[in-house]
Amino acid sequence: MELADRAVGLLLSSISLSIFTYYTFWVIILPFVDSDHFIHKYFLPQDYAILLPVFAGVTLLSLLSVFIGMVMLKSKKKKA
Amino acid sequence: MKHVVKILSLLVAVSAFWIVLLQAAIVPQSHTLLLPIYFVVSLGCYGLLMVGIGIMQFPTCPQEADLLNHVLSLPSFFLSYVVNIESFLLTCFSWHCRILQRQKTF
């Protein structure tokens, strides 16, 4: 039981750390690197750095509101 | 309260710095939202990291688990509480508190 817990925790923290380092590199370090450097191959164009989180955030918010709306409708149906 | 004030003042300082950079045209206007989005993303990553670390460090108290299993397997434990339901609930609650106490001491 403990091993499964630790594996899940390790997976979660590694995912978050990798996302953080990738995003930091993308946003802060890459603008100061010359455009001919090979490292630019591994990163998407800079415009996606703003679009992707905004898109993810909007998706999350819409999913949350859909869930809340469904729960509210269900509770109203039960009462009536 | 002091902690919140510290964090808020830090946030105000960083946003002032960002606005100064924007006005001085060091950062192009198209990238206005870069800093707030970066902070939101890093906040989300920090939350996930804390959750992951908490899951890894969660103590399972195997001693208490064994003791509890042993106690619950004895029928005399339940028979002694047939008359008095309050003391039974109180015992369950004290077990819970004991386990919580053990978990708080990392």
Automatic annotation (TrEMBL), chain A:
Protein name: Dolichol phosphate-mannose biosynthesis regulatory protein
Pathway membership, UniProt: Protein modification; protein glycosylation
Assembly behavior: Component of the dolichol-phosphate mannose (DPM) synthase complex.
PANTHER family: DOLICHOL PHOSPHATE-MANNOSE BIOSYNTHESIS REGULATORY PROTEIN (PTHR15039)
Family affiliation: Belongs to the DPM2 family.
Gene Ontology molecular function: any one: enzyme regulator activity
Keyword Plastid attached: no
Membrane-crossing residue ranges in chain numbering: 7-29, 49-73
Protein's GO biological process: dolichol phosphate mannose biosynthetic process
Key word Ligase present: no
Function, in words: Regulatory subunit of the dolichol-phosphate mannose (DPM) synthase complex; essential for the ER localization.
Native source species: Brassica campestris
One Pfam family from the record: DPM2
Listed InterPro entries: DPM2
Annotated membrane topology: Multi-pass membrane protein
GO cellular component: endoplasmic reticulum membrane
Keyword line: Endoplasmic reticulum, Membrane, Transmembrane, Transmembrane helix
Coiled coil stretches, renumbered: none
UniProtKB/TrEMBL annotation, chain B:
Membrane topology value: Multi-pass membrane protein
Pathway the protein contributes to: Protein modification; protein glycosylation
Subcellular location, principal: endoplasmic reticulum
Localization of this protein: Endoplasmic reticulum membrane
Protein name according to UniProt: Dolichol-phosphate mannosyltransferase subunit 3
GO CC terms, sorted: endoplasmic reticulum membrane
Top-rank lineage group of the source organism: Eukaryota
Subunit structure: Component of the dolichol-phosphate mannose (DPM) synthase complex.
Keyword field: Endoplasmic reticulum, Membrane, Transmembrane, Transmembrane helix
Described function: Stabilizer subunit of the dolichol-phosphate mannose (DPM) synthase complex; tethers catalytic subunit to the ER.
Any Pfam family: DPM3
Family label: Belongs to the DPM3 family.
Transmembrane feature ranges: 6-26, 33-58, 78-97
